[in-house]
Amino acid sequence: MELKNDLFLRAARGEAIERYPVWLMRQAGRILPEYRALRATLSGFKELVETPELAAEVTIQPVDHLDVDAAIIFSDILVVPEAMGLPYQMLEQKGPWFENTIRSREQLNLLDTHIDVADRLSYVFEALKITKNALNGRVPLIGFAGAPWTILCYMVEGKGSKTFSESRKLLYTQPELAHELLSRITEVTITYLKLQLAAGADALQLFDSWAGILGREHYKVFGLKYIQQIVEALPGVPLTVFSKGALASLPDLAELNCTTLGLDWNMDVAYARELVKETKTLQGNLDPCLLYADHSVIEKETIKLLKSFKSQRHIVNLGHGVYPDIDPEKVKVLIKTVKNYEN
Ligand code: CP3
To answer: In this structure, what DSSP letter does residue 152 have?
Structure first.
């Protein structure tokens, strides 16, 4: 199906664009009253993720109500550990929780091997197919997965954490175990992402939410090595690597063969541009807290970011997911400012 608005894909590939594309990480979710209304009728988050018609519906909500230039499939990065044999629960107000964790060889051996990804994650592929059809070419559809390091963090910790010290401890005490787990996550993730493309995803994003807790050397060995394997398995695909907080690793990220790097709000756009030259598109990187400000401040800061761009290879986004209590009207101000900007 021909896309009516393919700005996001052209920007990712470094082709000519009339204006910068814009979308928001976590745009499908609690910021929208339409999402909260649907969610209130369900048993929980997982019911939404696992019911393809409903996941498709909330994926399209921000396209209808916020006028973004891309849709991202409604799912979660934690479906991968679950498919590997480590089920999760999403506790209200608390976040993810795993009954079992992987901190020893014995526990690693309890994971399922040779899993049928097409079958175990069929609900995601079905949601992509339904969404792709229902979008009818309005905007590109982004698929995603967690990067192996971030997935390891949840499998080892079993829940969110400020320090993920159990995960970092593993890198010093049982590095072979860490590598084995990372290899297994990587293998499943490659299959998962290829199947997302086959089901209709036009582009992909890897979320490495906990990249920033590793130093440069550790991130090279336990993070980037596996991201590199994923990138190399997907040649020519518009693919964003978002390594949140990985400031020290920007020169290494610039060497990856992906089309796009995601920047958080601590990363300097000009410095990142110097590193990547014209080989990559940069995505980001407004502070999510900007959206608490008045309309005039949102406009001013957005224009400041746009003016700082020295290349066409940019996709406008926040530097992390939009916070759930943000007024959607503020998001609309950001989006309108990008769409009306003429450089
Ligand atoms: O709009 C989109 O971006 C698509 C949907 C999406 C969700 N999770 C839905 C979700 C995406 C891309 C994710 C990725 C994800 N999930 C990440 C990486 C991005 C990041 O934020 O760093 C991570 C670390 C997770 C794991 C996760 N899922 C946590 C820690 C939590 C609890 C915290 C929270 O925000 O509530 C979730 C739950 C989650 N994932 C919700 C949504 C809409 C909230 C659940 C609800 O509706 O009750």
So the answer is: H
C-alpha distances (whole Å) from 252 to each of 19, 216, 238, 268, 276 are 29, 9, 19, 15, 10
Q: How far apart are CA 297 and CA 290, in angstroms?
A: 8
Angle of CA points 342, 283, 178, to nearest 5°: 180
Burial class (CB in 10 A: 0-12, 13-18, 19+), 279: middle
Phi and psi, residue 283, nearest 5° = -120, 130
3-state helix, strand, coil in the chain (%, to 5): 50, 15, 35
Residue 1, pLDDT score: 77
Indicate if ligand 1 lies below 6 Å from the C-beta of 13: no
Q: Kindly state the tokens that stand for 225.
A: 């090595």
Asked whether 321 lines ligand 1 (CB < 6 A), one says: yes
**For position 343, what pLDDT does the model report?**
74
Active site residue 119: no
Cα torsion 257, 262, 267, 273: sign: positive
pTM metric for this prediction: 0.97
Distance between CA atoms of 211 and 247, rounded to whole angstroms?
A: 9
Listed residue (174, 197, 53, 207) closest to 107, CA to CA: 174
Low-confidence stretches of the chain (pLDDT < 50) are: none
Residue type, position 268, single letter: D
Report the atom number in ligand 1 closest to the C-alpha of 324: 35
User: How far, in Å, CA of 85 to CA of 81, rounded?
Assistant: 7
Average pLDDT of the chain is: 97
Predicted local confidence at residue 142, as pLDDT? 98
- Rounded to the nearest 5°, which phi and psi values hold at 135? -65, -30
User: Separation of 40 CA from ligand 1 center, angstroms?
Assistant: 17
Fold exhibited by the domain 7-340: TIM Barrel (3.20.20)
Q: Which pLDDT value is given to residue 260?
A: 98
256-278 as b/e: b if 16+ CB within 10 A:
bebbbbbbbbebebeebbebbee
From the CB of 27, is ligand 1 less than 6 Å away?
Answer: yes
DSSP-derived letter for residue 171 is H
